[in-house]
Design brief:
- By secondary structure, the protein is of the alpha/beta class.
- The protein has 3 domains: about 90 residues, MurE/MurF, N-terminal domain (Udp-n-acetylmuramoylalanyl-d-glutamate--2,6- Diaminopimelate Ligase, Chain: A, domain 1), CATH 3.40.1390.10; about 150 residues, Hexapeptide repeat proteins (UDP N-Acetylglucosamine Acyltransferase, domain 1), CATH 2.160.10; about 30 residues.
- The protein is built from 6 helices and 35 strands.
- The protein has a 9-stranded parallel sheet, with no helix packed on it.
- The protein is flat.
- The relative contact order is 0.06.
């Protein structure tokens, strides 16, 4: 893509210092940007990179304006990182303007599925009976959308994702298992992004629900009847077991596990690798990670942890004796 600085400001706002007719052809980090690139600075700690950067134009906050103007062209905005994010979207739209939209010839779309005319269904996708795909939603290659599942508008689903596979439901029958038919579907709101090879299971009776603005990374498992609130984001390899409810504006770090039938309230932040084994209703940052150590020390500490319960009882007994 090729554009000039005045066109960027006209589209995204901000205050330009420098030549609006200057043409740029790429986006790049400060340290590798050339005289044809736009870059950004959001953290004042990297001011030295700002001064040394060869970028044609740098997006900065007002606090960095003086240094940026002394270096060359810049765009001043309240939130440089957010501005840059929107610039990447503008750049992608311009780059992809000539790309194919519609249903790829290799995709399989059931005649009883509904695909909005502005949606894009990529190569080797499968959209089953009764599924609905909203306006401007994009399914990358090899995405499967199961029967009766619904995706809203402006969603992006990356390669290999499966929406609406059966939930993991079985009733014990002696030494065997009897399958519980999964009769629900998956409801996905607007502006949701789903990473590659992520799986969202259909509900057993009621639907699994992913609300507006949710962002799911790659290789995430969402169990049946889970509900994920608006604008929650989860990093790669998170697992959410069936019937868990996650509130709005939560974040879940990579590899974290949330057990079934639990509730996370709004604005709960879970650290990477954490096992959530009870409901958390109060907003805040929660971590449950045993620190890494050399193996011998870790085994000794783990053995000590097993004695904590009995040690607690002994302390209680001593406290009672002291009080007497």
């Amino acid at each position: 893509m090729k554009t000039d600085l005045s066109s960027i400001v006209a589209a995204l706002g901000g205050v330009l210092h420098g030549d609006g007719a200057l043409v740029v052809t790429g986006l790049a980090p400060l340290e590798t940007a050339t005289r044809h690139d736009v870059s950004f600075l959001s953290n004042p700690r990297y001011q030295s990179q700002l001064i040394a950067s060869q970028a044609a134009c740098i997006i900065v906050s007002s606090a960095m304006q003086t240094a940026a103007v002394a270096r060359g062209a810049c765009i001043v905005t309240d939130q440089p990182y957010l501005y840059f994010a929107r610039l990447t979207q503008l750049w992608k739209r311009g780059r992809d303007a000539s790309m194919y939209c519609g249903i790829h010839a290799s995709a399989v779309v059931d005649p009883k599925a509904v695909v909005h005319p502005t949606a894009t269904i990529g190569p080797l996708c499968v959209v089953e009976r009764g599924a609905r795909i909203g306006a401007d939603t994009v399914l990358k290659s090899r995405v499967t959308v199961g029967e009766d599942c619904v995706l809203g508008e402006r969603c992006i689903v990356h390669a290999g994702a499966v929406i609406g596979a059966d939930g993991f439901g079985f009733a014990p029958n002696g030494v065997a298992w009897e399958k519980i038919a999964q009769l629900g579907a998956v409801q996905i709101g607007n502006d949701v992004e789903i990473g590659a090879n992520t799986c969202i299971d259909r509900g057993a009776l009621q639907d699994t629900v992913i609300e507006d603005g949710v962002k799911l990374d790659n290789l995430i498992q969402i169990g049946h009847n889970v509900r994920v609130g608006r604008n929650t984001a989860m990093a790669g390899c998170v697992g959410v077991a069936g019937s868990a409810t996650i509130g709005e504006h939560c974040t879940v770090g990579g590899g974290a596990i949330i057990l079934g039938h639990l509730t996370l309230g709004p604005d709960v932040n879970i650290s990477a690798g954490t096992l959530v084994s009870k409901s958390i209703l109060k907003s805040g940052h929660y971590t449950g990670i045993f620190p890494v150590d050399d193996n011998a020390s870790w085994e000794r500490n783990a053995a000590s942890l097993k004695q904590l319960y009995s040690l607690r009882d002994r302390i209680k007994t001593l406290e009672k004796e002291i009080k007497q």
